[in-house]
From TrEMBL:
<keyword id="KW-0521">NADP</keyword>
<keyword id="KW-0560">Oxidoreductase</keyword>
<dbReference type="GO" id="GO:0016491">
    <property type="term" value="F:oxidoreductase activity"/>
</dbReference>
<dbReference type="Pfam" id="PF13561">
    <property type="entry name" value="adh_short_C2"/>
</dbReference>
<dbReference type="InterPro" id="IPR002347">
    <property type="entry name" value="SDR_fam"/>
</dbReference>
<dbReference type="InterPro" id="IPR020904">
    <property type="entry name" value="Sc_DH/Rdtase_CS"/>
</dbReference>
<comment type="similarity">
    <text>Belongs to the short-chain dehydrogenases/reductases (SDR) family.</text>
</comment>
<protein>
    <submittedName>
        <fullName>Uncharacterized protein</fullName>
    </submittedName>
</protein>
<dbReference type="InterPro" id="IPR052178">
    <property type="entry name" value="Sec_Metab_Biosynth_SDR"/>
</dbReference>
<dbReference type="InterPro" id="IPR036291">
    <property type="entry name" value="NAD(P)-bd_dom_sf"/>
</dbReference>
Amino acid sequence: MSTKDLIDIYAVPGKVAVITGSSRGLGYDMAEALLLGGAARVYISSRKVDACAKAVSQLNAIAKEKNLPGKAYSIPADVSTKAGADALRAAFDKVNKEEGLEPRADIVIANAGATWAEEIEKFPDSAFAKVMDLNVRGVFFTVVAFLDLLRKAGTPEDPARVIITGSVAGLTGLMPNGFAYNASKAGVHQLGKQLAVDLGPQHISVNILAPGFFPSKMTAGFLSGGVGDHMAETNPLKRLGLRSDIIGVTLFLTSKASAYVNGVVLPLDGGSHVGAPKI
Ligand SMILES: NC(=O)c1ccc[n+]([C@@H]2O[C@H](COP(=O)([O-])OP(=O)(O)OC[C@H]3O[C@@H](n4cnc5c(N)ncnc54)[C@H](OP(=O)(O)O)[C@@H]3O)[C@@H](O)[C@H]2O)c1
């Protein structure tokens, strides 16, 4: 194997990817990673039409500036229900038809997620349902909505990829008052393992990324007032997550490098899951 062969193992040339929750935060970084890795198409999705359009325009500017072969497309949808996941697929089909593109999906990243923290006796029923719907139910129906294309894309040597964004909160329960969030992430880890076993024979692998704390809109409130510094200080690697951490692991989980990895929950947290600090 040459150095070029080795580099190619970590690239995703010509791949087509759909990423939910990619208008900002971790999902946006994943989209950028795939374009940098040579993907042909990356479909950006979230509820807000304007936010998707802005992300697409930023990503396409990066692709132009760096002379990358790929392009980003916008397919907004609320993926917290089956109807929403079906609407995501309909938006995908519509864009492909308009642009004259072959409907293909080699990679589906079910990343959209929501959180809620409230004292135990005040925790709203509606918030519990909202978190479970998006973080578990929506993940399942997003995968189902693209199954036909994933089945066509996978081969024994290079399966189609489903990546689910879980959380270390599903491993350690370290999000204070995050009853629904912690339960949803533990649940979606198990959902991912079930899908890995069921879809593996169809040449589709399913892996779950479990990030620790990364600065984003979702974590901004929690990490404010010195909590972020405390989380960094008490992390075994003495810092929070970086964009480059997301970019590296995204390319690992979607490239040939991980062709035989299936059903894992991969913590990306500097080792905090091994012994979570008290907050
Ligand atoms: N940041 C962290 O430290 C961390 C740690 C562990 C796990 N995670 C997980 O990583 C994922 C991304 O988190 P993040 O930190 O990047 O959060 P974020 O910055 O809040 O981004 C969330 C994304 O999801 C979209 N979204 C929210 N509700 C949606 C819905 N119902 N349907 C479709 N899209 C929706 C948002 O856009 P719209 O508002 O336009 O819909 C946005 O694009 C989540 O699953 C989260 O649980 C994050």
